[in-house]
C-alpha cells in the first residue's frame, strides 16, 4: 500500500475489486452490457467464457434487438456503388462497403435548393468492407429488416449481411429469371428486388423473390413487325438459418404482396393513380407498403401508403400521404432534374427520401402530413465516404449510386438460430 495525492491507492483498488465482485454477472450483462453497441460487445465476448455464451444467447440477442428497435433513429445505412461508365448492367466489382450515415434533421424554415446549387457535405462513418472474388454486380437493390440487409443483384444471386456483426453470405442460386435481358433492354430495370422480413408464424427471417418464366415460344406479329413472348411470374422463399434451398410457392395470376403465414403470394391493387414505368417505385416506409408515383410531365411525386389493418392482407386501403414538387433555378427549368425518388425514413412530420436525376444522387427532406402539393424543404447533397485505411473520397458524380436504408444494429445471425 502506498500514498498518492493523500490517498491510499491499495485501498482504492481493493474497493473497486470488491464492488466488481459484488455485482452479479446476470445483472451486469442484462442491465449494462445489453445497452452497448455491437462493436463494444465484440470486445466483451473476449472477457470470459460466461460473457461470451451470454452475449451469444437467444435471450440477449432478442432483448438487444428490442432495445435497438425502440431507440429513436440517429443514423441510416449507405451502400455506395460506382456504376459502369460503359453502361454494362452486369458489370461487377470485387468488393462492397457499408457506411453509417448520420440522420441530420433539416433546420427550421429551410427551403429547398436544386442539386446544382447545393454544397453541403455529409461525412459517413465506415462500418466494414467485404471482398468477394467472384464479383458483385455494381447494380444492386438492398433492403433492410432488423439489422439484416438483403442485396439483390443484376443476376440471380442474392447476398445477405449483418453489418454490425460483419456476417456476409451468398444464398444458393434461385430460379433463373428468363426475361432478365429483355427487362434490361426494354424497361430499364437491371435488378429485380427481393423482400426481407420476419415470419412471425415460423419465427424465422425469410427472403422472398420473384422471377419470370417463358410460357411457350416467342411469336412474330407480321402486322406490327414485333415479337411477343408470353410469360408468367413465379415466386420463391428462402429461410435464413435453415440450411435449405429456395422454396417455390403457388403461382397467382400476377405479382404482388407476400403473406408470411400460408407462404403464398396474393394479388393486391395499386393506388388509384396513373403508372409511370420509368419513375414509379415501391418501398417500405415505417413498416408500411409505400407506392411512389412520378408525374411524367412535371417533377412531382405522390407518395401513397397502404393500410391492411382493417381490411386484411387481400384488401389494401391506399391513402395519399404527401406530394412533392421540386423547384429549379430560373436558368435551368428542367423537369427531369429529379426523375426518381424513394422514401427512406420518417421523423416526426418529415420524411427523408433518396432522389436521383440529371445531376447526381441527393437526399432530401419534405413534410409528410399534407396531401397537397408542396416543395421539398431541404437538400442533403455531397456524401463523403471513408475507406478502410482512413482516407476519404467524395461520391458526387452521375456514376455513383447511394443506396440509403433505414438501419439499426442487431446481433441476429444469418447462419444459426440465435434469436
From TrEMBL:
<feature type="domain" description="F-box">
    <location>
        <begin position="26"/>
        <end position="56"/>
    </location>
</feature>
<dbReference type="InterPro" id="IPR050796">
    <property type="entry name" value="SCF_F-box_component"/>
</dbReference>
<protein>
    <recommendedName>
        <fullName>F-box domain-containing protein</fullName>
    </recommendedName>
</protein>
<dbReference type="InterPro" id="IPR001810">
    <property type="entry name" value="F-box_dom"/>
</dbReference>
<dbReference type="Pfam" id="PF00646">
    <property type="entry name" value="F-box"/>
</dbReference>
<dbReference type="InterPro" id="IPR036047">
    <property type="entry name" value="F-box-like_dom_sf"/>
</dbReference>
Amino acid at each position: 500500500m502506498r500514498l498518492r495525492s493523500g490517498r491510499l491507492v491499495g485501498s482504492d483498488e481493493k474497493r473497486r475489486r470488491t464492488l466488481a465482485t459484488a455485482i452479479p454477472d446476470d445483472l451486469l450483462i442484462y442491465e449494462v452490457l445489453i445497452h452497448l453497441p455491437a462493436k463494444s460487445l465484440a470486445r466483451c465476448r473476449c472477457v470470459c467464457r460466461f460473457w461470451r455464451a451470454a452475449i451469444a444467447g437467444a435471450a440477449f440477442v432478442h432483448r438487444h434487438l428490442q432495445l435497438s428497435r425502440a431507440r429513436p433513429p440517429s443514423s441510416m445505412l449507405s451502400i455506395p456503388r460506382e456504376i459502369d461508365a460503359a453502361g454494362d448492367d452486369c458489370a461487377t466489382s470485387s468488393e462492397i462497403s457499408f457506411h453509417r450515415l448520420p440522420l441530420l434533421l433539416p433546420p427550421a424554415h429551410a427551403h429547398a435548393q436544386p442539386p446544382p446549387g447545393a454544397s453541403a457535405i455529409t461525412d459517413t462513418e465506415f462500418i466494414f468492407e467485404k471482398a468477394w472474388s467472384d464479383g458483385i454486380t455494381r447494380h444492386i437493390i438492398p433492403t433492410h429488416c432488423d439489422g439484416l440487409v438483403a442485396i439483390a443483384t443484376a443476376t440471380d444471386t442474392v447476398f445477405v449481411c449483418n453489418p454490425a456483426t460483419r456476417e456476409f453470405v451468398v444464398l444458393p442460386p434461385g430460379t433463373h429469371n428468363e426475361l432478365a435481358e429483355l427487362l434490361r433492354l426494354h424497361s430499364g430495370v437491371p435488378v429485380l428486388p427481393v423482400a426481407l422480413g420476419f415470419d412471425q408464424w415460423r419465427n424465422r427471417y425469410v427472403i422472398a423473390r420473384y422471377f419470370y418464366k417463358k410460357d411457350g415460344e416467342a411469336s412474330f406479329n407480321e402486322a406490327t413487325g414485333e415479337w411477343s413472348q408470353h410469360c408468367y411470374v413465379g415466386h420463391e422463399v428462402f429461410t435464413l438459418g435453415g440450411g435449405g434451398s429456395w422454396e417455390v410457392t403457388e403461382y397467382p395470376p400476377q405479382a404482388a404482396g407476400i403473406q408470411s403465414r400460408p407462404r403464398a403470394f396474393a394479388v393486391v391493387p395499386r393506388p388509384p393513380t396513373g403508372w409511370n414505368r420509368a419513375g414509379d417505385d415501391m418501398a417500405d416506409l415505417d413498416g408500411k407498403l409505400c407506392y411512389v408515383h412520378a408525374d411524367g410531365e412535371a417533377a412531382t411525386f405522390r407518395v401513397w401508403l397502404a393500410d391492411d389493418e382493417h381490411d386484411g392482407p387481400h384488401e389494401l386501403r391506399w391513402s395519399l400521404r404527401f406530394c412533392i414538387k421540386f423547384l429549379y433555378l430560373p436558368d435551368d427549368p428542367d423537369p427531369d432534374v429529379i426523375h426518381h425518388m424513394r422514401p427512406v425514413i420518417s421523423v416526426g412530420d418529415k420524411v427523408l427520401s433518396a432522389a436521383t436525376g440529371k445531376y447526381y444522387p441527393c437526399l432530401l427532406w419534405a413534410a409528410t402530413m399534407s396531401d397537397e402539393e408542396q416543395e421539398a424543404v431541404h437538400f442533403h447533397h455531397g456524401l463523403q465516404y471513408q475507406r478502410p485505411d482512413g482516407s476519404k473520397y467524395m461520391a458526387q458524380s452521375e456514376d455513383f449510386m447511394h443506396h440509403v436504408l433505414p438501419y439499426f444494429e442487431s446481433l441476429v445471425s444469418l447462419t444459426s438460430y440465435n434469436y
